[in-house]
Amino acid sequence: MGHSFQVIGLLCMVNRYALCVPLIAARIHEGLLFSAKAKTTLLDKMLKLLQELLVDNSGAYFIVDAYYCSSKIVKGLVDKNHHLITRARSNAVAYESPPKILSVNEEDLENTERNLSSKIASEKTK
To answer: What's the pLDDT tens digit per position in 45-65?
Structure first.
């Protein structure tokens, strides 16, 4: 079990200099585990801490090392309109999510087919 220390800060411009003002300094760790079935990871705890701090969807930037480059963190931030800046891990795989398939109501499909058939029939008679 290793140690993990996180600081969440606010990046500000002061007299043309970028400064990071620390907002929260937290030591996130596993704590005492009484069961091997405990599924809360350090990534879950960090994501929860971020969601508590970033209550609005203002599009914050999360700048971290490669440890946080995981699908759990990426999805958690993107779902809330935030951004992730990190180095990709050696096992990272990038892909574009497939488009969502809309469910089609059978009745709507039959109506559409009927409308198309009637349009085709009317064009043939012209």
So the answer is: 888 888 888 777 777 888 888
Residue 55 domain boundaries = 37-125
Residue 9: count of CB within 10 angstroms of its CB: 13
**Residue 78: band (very low, low, confident or very high) from pLDDT cuts 50, 70, 90:** confident
List the Cα angle 74/80/85 in 5-degree steps: 40
Q: Quote the number of domains for the chain.
A: 1
Q: Three-state SS for 55?
A: coil
In a domain, 90, yes or no: yes
pLDDT digit string, tens, across residues 23-52: 877 766 666 666 667 677 888 888 888 888
CA distance 1 to 31: 10
Q: Please tell me the distance from the alpha carbon of residue 93 to that of residue 91, in angstroms, as a whole number.
A: 7
